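Example 5.3 — Peptidyl-tRNA hydrolase
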Amino acid sequence: MTDAPWLVVGLGNPGPEYAKHRHNVGFLVVELLARRIGATFGRSRKAVALAAEGRLGFGGPRLVLAKPLTYMNLAGGAVVGLANFYKVPIEQIVAVHDELDLPYATLRLKRGGGEGGHNGLRSMSKSLGSRDYVRVRFGIGRPPGRQDPADFVLSNFSGAENKELDFLVDRAADAVEAVVVGGLEPAQNTYHAS
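Solution (predicted structure tokens):
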């Protein structure tokens, strides 16, 4: 076990106009994790990102939480900058992102695999030179009717979805903690069963 921290990257777009969009659910999850560990986001000097540092519980694993300040399709550069500075191995990088191919309220965890057309993941994989990081996939569902998926991800959650959103963000944050503390497979067993 390395003493390097875990780098948990919430994928999203910077700026208040994007804050409530489906595409920014990764930001919501890392913001909650920061509150849980009593950390505050500040501008990183090592990457174009906001970063927060702390420990998960007393004497627990170190976490670096990140919100890239680039737009989604350029997030990889910020991730590499932080990973290099903190000497985080690829297996201790976690990307939290929205997932069109999962129904709303579905949470899935995996290591590696394709990007499924997700520009943030594509940028991360290209910049890291690897796909072998952990993904916490937050299902947002497919767009209704003929709505363009690009427009759908850049729109706010519906009123019905918003009623469940806090609970789901909380559950996704729990899943990240489970991966960090106990490993991917036990976390999958817990969060894929429900």
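Remark. Residues 85 and 173 are 24 Å apart (CA to CA).
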